[in-house]
Write a structure and sequence with these properties.
Largest sheet: 7 strands, mixed
Shape: rod-shaped
Distance between the termini: 104 Å
Number of strands: 31
Structural class: mainly beta
Strand order of the largest sheet: 12-9-8-16-31-25-28
Radius of gyration: 43 Å
């Protein structure tokens, strides 16, 4: 049997461990000595409060330079270091630098440098530039209505906007009553705009919507200008004798013949001796335009395709021909018509007209039609009004008519001015 001296074994193991530790320490010292031989590492103070602000195919970098007198330059790198920019700076200052940048997200590294070329540690930053792709998705604000009131004040009602793309307002341009072009900014949360100094000849305004993709963006983006036609009351320009009290060319008691309106024989159904009258009723708050038959066995005969109308020449535009009906036989065979003729058609042929609307109930009614070029148009009314005997009849009254026009406009090119 072999006896092991434990004391000798422990001494030998301790000696081996000391040798290993000595060799390891020498190796680490040699590595450290290598750096000492190359010189001491010098770090320059890094930039502080770095911000990257978005713009239109550009960015703006802002940063604070620490009060380190060794700082002489700043180095900005992006595109994985393939692109860079070096700036002369002073310590304890602020950097504001614009850099042209294609649309998209950009990752940057920023350094400071001293006179000997020593750099600070990198300060990373991420930013974004916007451009054509962003602009292509921008939409102009929509309107609910746009009208010119009788005092020549333009009223524009706006629809709400989707705020996700960053709309900040709408610029409205118009011709003022002093002949100059004016511009106003409508806040994005304003729902109504009033223009009190619109030129009396103006029938349109132009507007575009302004966007900031981010609240801190350095550039404002714009949609194309859109020319908006205003609904303008042009009644006085094209129609005559259009409201109560309606003037007459001849009268017999309650009934008269309206001036400036064409009436056919069927409308003139009140007999006074050898003369006939009709088209205007002086009772019940008149005189207003009217057709009536009945309440008599020997007078006020049935009206078949009775017509009251005017012939006018209108320029291209979108039109609304309105009428106020204070009272009528509800459900009667009455129509409001716009026709490209010198006469409005019979009731059985109203579908051939430029536009028609059955208007057989009290209230305000509006007939819409459009002209792509100047045309002669007959505007008026046609109806069948039966005589139901001495105790009954049929009637239709019109207190006033109005003609409103919206000029046909085209979008005009994008304007890039700020």
């Amino acid at each position: 049997m072999i006896k092991i001296n434990r004391t000798h074994t422990i001494i030998r193991l301790a000696f081996v461990l000391i040798l290993i530790s000595t060799f390891s320490s020498c190796a680490k010292w040699d590595e450290f000595k290598q750096y000492i031989d190359e010189g001491e590492i010098v770090y320059v103070g890094k930039l502080d409060s770095v911000k990257v602000l978005s713009g239109n195919e550009r960015i703006k970098i802002t940063a604070e330079v620490k009060p380190d007198p060794k700082i002489k330059k700043a180095l900005i790198k992006w595109n994985d270091g393939k692109d860079s920019l070096q700036l002369d700076i002073g310590h304890n200052s602020v950097i504001e630098q614009y850099i042209a940048m294609p649309e998209g997200i950009v990752s940057l590294e920023l350094f400071t440098i001293d006179d000997e070329g020593n750099r600070s540690i990198a300060v990373p930053a991420i930013g974004r530039a916007y451009g054509p792709r962003y602009s292509a998705g921008l939409t102009n604000r929509l309107t609910s209505s746009a009208v010119i009131e009788n005092n020549n004040t333009a009223l524009i009602d706006w629809q709400e906007m989707d705020m996700s793309a960053g709309p900040i307002g709408t610029e409205v341009r118009y011709i003022a009553n002093n002949g100059t072009t004016k511009s106003i900014i409508v806040k994005v949360d304003d729902m109504t705009t009033s223009i009190v100094d619109l030129a009396s000849t103006a029938k349109t305004v132009s507007y575009r919507t302004l966007y900031l993709p981010q609240k801190t963006s350095i550039d404002t983006f714009y949609t194309a200008f859109y020319e908006l036609g205003l609904a303008k009351d042009v009644t006085a320009e094209y129609l005559k004798n259009y409201t109560n009290p309606v003037a007459t060319s001849s009268v017999s008691g309650r009934w008269g013949i309206p001036s400036d309106w064409i009436t056919n024989t069927a409308v003139r159904n009140f007999r006074d001796g050898s003369n006939y009258f009709g088209g205007v009723d002086h009772w019940f708050g008149g005189p207003f335009l009217a057709m009536e038959a009945g309440w008599s066995e020997d007078n006020m005969s049935s009206i078949v395709n009775g017509k009251i109308y005017q012939i006018v020449t209108l320029p291209a535009g979108h039109y609304t021909f309105e009428m106020d009906i204070p009272d009528c036989t509800i459900g009667g065979d009455f129509y409001t018509v716009a026709a490209l003729e010198t006469e409005i058609p019979n009731t059985e042929n109203v579908s051939t007209a430029l536009g028609f609307l059955k208007t057989s109930s009290p209230g305000t009614h509006g007939l819409k039609f459009s002209l792509m070029e100047a045309k002669q148009v007959a505007l008026g009314f046609v109806g069948n009004v039966p005589n139901k005997g001495a105790g009954d009849g049929t009637f239709w009254r019109i207190n006033a008519v109005r003609l409103k026009q919206i000029v046909i406009v085209q979008e005009i090119p994008v304007l890039h001015d700020k």
